[in-house]
Amino acid sequence: MYTSTGFISWLLRRISGVALVLYLFTHLWVIGAANSGTQVFNARLDAVQTPIFKLFEIALLAAVVYHALDGIRLLLIHYFDLTEYRKTLFWAVFIASAILTLAGGIAILAIMLNGG
Amino acid sequence: MLTFKIQRWSAIALLFFLTVHMIFMHYVPPFHITFDVVQARLSTPTWKIIDILFLFSVLVHAMAGSYQVITDFESAFNYRKALAWASIIIVILAFIYGAKTIWAFQL
Amino acid sequence: MSNNDIQRTVTVRIQRFNPDVDKKPHMQDYQVKMWPGMTILDALHEIKTHQDGSVTYRRSCRHGICGSCAMHINGRNTLACKTPIINEVQKNDTVTIGPLPYLPVIKDMVVDRTSFWEQYLRVKPWLLPPNDIPEKEFRMSQEEVDALHDAEACIMCGACYSSCAVIGLNKKYLGPHALLKAFLRVLDPRDTAPAERLEIVSQADGVARCHTIFNCIDACPKGLNPTQAIETLRKLAQKRQKYEEARRERQKHLNEPIPS
Ligand code: FES
Hints:
The structure holds three protein chains of three kinds. Helices cover 82% and strands 0% of the residues of chain A. By secondary structure, chain A is mostly helical. By secondary structure, chain B is mostly helical. Chain B has a single domain (2-103), classed as Up-down Bundle (3 helical TM bundles of succinate and fumarate reductases), CATH 1.20.1300. Chain B contains five helices and no strands. Chain B has helices at residues 2-26, 35-42, 45-71, 74-77, 80-104.
């Protein structure tokens, strides 16, 4: 095993990616309830908007934010030849995703506590 | 290389669509999603187009990504043709299902 | 280095594996007294000649040009002969040495590099010169030389290849060493077949399989940048016919002096 910041970023990208694929298909199924009518849809959506799912949503947000920022990092490196700044960019992505997840997570919690 | 290009372009599309989706679905009131809420939003054609395009790019990105993750393993690499077709079929089926869902909000 | 350092003894922890008796690799410690300027390879020599003749490793030139002595030292791939041991001593006075990762171990630090060379040959690493070779010499402009980013300095030691996580999963991937060489040939104004080379590297086991992990850059003992080479190939692969035409145009002027 050859560990490095690049290896960690790749591992996180893979893990978050696979998690998001699984989430995507669950998500499709959940809103697919609309095909069976209004009641079924509202019932199923109520079930996934309980506080415990809101907490899962923060984990989901973390995965989305990291995966997206990591993608932006790769795009920047490809189009602007930034391989020399790989370490800086890695940490920038890491810190930015932490901040965004925290901000978004607090917003989710605030909305939840306000009974939104 | 084709997978790679598909991945890159769908990623760029997703950066836009996903940001819009996340903001409007989760950080703008009303926070509790019901049938009527979605129906009100999808009654405008712009939202319908955005959601259809979003659905397509997210499915393509997801399956192209899964294909790459799986074919990274040497044992799966030899079956990459079959895996590619399987991914394409999954994208088509899921797209039909998702598009049907978007249409269901018409009623 | 102070006098104390000269007297210092370090523990060299070596991963041992003898296929005749061992089932699994195990670690073995040796005590080595350092002398000024001692390299990791010197320490290994010290062990082999004075302590344990069965320690096995490859080496040839002892000054970083043959590429035989690439090893996994303290979790990094590098050349044993150009790494001063004093730089590698950890807090517990230990240096850990093992074979290159992700490759089959033959014995101790000797690994099987078959896949490394097989992938290398797939990109046709040799130059394919034009038919009408100029009388005196090929002329390259300074920009053309700069664009190669010293890729010709690669010594084929395998440090980048065996640091790559994709290689760890899939030995069918071309690998950073082969792609760096393909990059060198594609950008070489003397080469006649850039389109064919770009075709080879843009297959499913070529540039698209690089996941931009950057281990190859960190591992390269020559300070080269295989990732940059791969990114460049990715861009050029999108317009290979145009690129080849430009090359043919360029080769009409190989004889002429470079306009400055
Ligand atoms: S012995 Fe030749 S490179 Fe180290």
